[in-house]
Amino acid sequence: MATKTVAGTTVDVNDEGFFTDPDQWNEAMAPELAAAEGIDELTDRHWTVLRFVRNEFAEKGTGPTVRVLGKTSGVSVKELYQLFPKGPAKIAARIAGIPKPRGCI
Amino acid sequence: MSHRIVILGAGTGGTLTANRLRRHYAPDAATITVVDQDDRHVYQPGLLFLPFGLTHAEDIVRPRARQLHDGIEYRQSAVDHVDVETARVHLADGSELAYDVLVVATGARLVPEETEGLVWGDDVATFYDLEQAVALERRLARLDEGELVVNVVDLPIKCPVAPLEFCFLADWYLTDRGVRDRVNITYVTPLDGAFTKPTASAALSSMLEEKGIRLVTEFNTGEVVAPADGESGRLVSYDEREVPFDLAVVIPLHGGATWVGRSEGLGDELDFVPTDPRTLQSQAAPNIFAIGDATNVPASKAGSVTHFEGEVLVGNVIRFLAGEELDAGYDGHANCFIETGFGKALLIDFNYETEPVGGHFPGRVGVPLLKESRLNHLGKLMFQWFYWHALLPGRDLPGIGPEMPTAGKHLSGG
Fold it and tell me: Any chain A CB within 8 A of the CB of B222?
């Protein structure tokens, strides 16, 4: 397992950069994680999605897919792609410090 | 006391479950009622072959009721909803069915309406539905040049290998018609490769390449624009990439049955039923079980999965009604023939933990895995006989049990 340093703290990540222990994450880490994904500023809309993703993970043990996000987070799929252009489910999971969403079979 | 067992859905899962349970219980020990909204049981693997004229609608459809053993009551009605609290099914015809055990087997539903612009027509087609597959046969026969695009909008879908098989069969079909050099075939997928599992994905990617089929990955279709006024159609992704087409074969989004959404506490956001992946008991209530495409278990939505789940599920329904502990016996076993065209096919065999690898099935001597052969193609053709005469009646297939065999597989690290 790899580690990386975010906001001065060492955290465990897998080879794709996803947190393996969501408890090591805190909100202060999000801007730095977002910058690494090419997102310069986290708006309220970004935070709506990030908090939703954290809650979903806490409840269900996996992050939501884009389609489920679009149906349940209050942010449409179109807007999700504007907020997280390279793939909302994966990018939001990386910034929110949760493992890679299972979703696809 | 006689147990009241109600099974919603008379497709693969509902039929084999009903037949196995009927064989287990004496007539006065249980009443078994099966509900479906129509009397048309489609052998779904046949839908792949229809557009290429390799099978016909009348060869893959049989009456549902006739697949059920004597002593099983068949009710033809849509389901309005299930009241989980009071354990009653409310049918669309106004009647109610009380149950001691409910089995949800109503499968998956196509929801093209969730994708902007996705309307079936002359140049935007699918083979995931009987009528559309028949229409696609006529349309393909007129395809002499241009861009044929096969697109999976998003997972989960039924039979995740079928869209790839469609590409392989289209390559064969167009070659046969002498127009392959004038038709480009492009496979457009939301995944980062040809398939979900790494070893099989690599093998299938190189097959696409060998056959000159283009691969576009990580494409999340946001809109489908049909060809009009001499302009070609296009798929538009959410990140604003475009793939032009003259004929698009689209596998639309899937959801569970609509009645699941109307039943409080039963389904998830997509109307699939949250289900224990090992015991197949629903998370909604201990007396509700689910099988096949209707569940949210992390296995392929495929007939083989349903078949292997069936044995475990039936055992658990019997245990539940006897007040015994359930068996966590389903391991995610799936087994799929993949048609690769020109009379050949390959076979993959996998479960929750083990991805599809090479080797032989079911043991060291057997048919090859993850490798093209004529034998696998014959296996796929023969399977239809098996389906009607062994799988649906609920007979055990010799040598093929619910647990995935490992003897013939090339597994790394043991």
Answer: yes
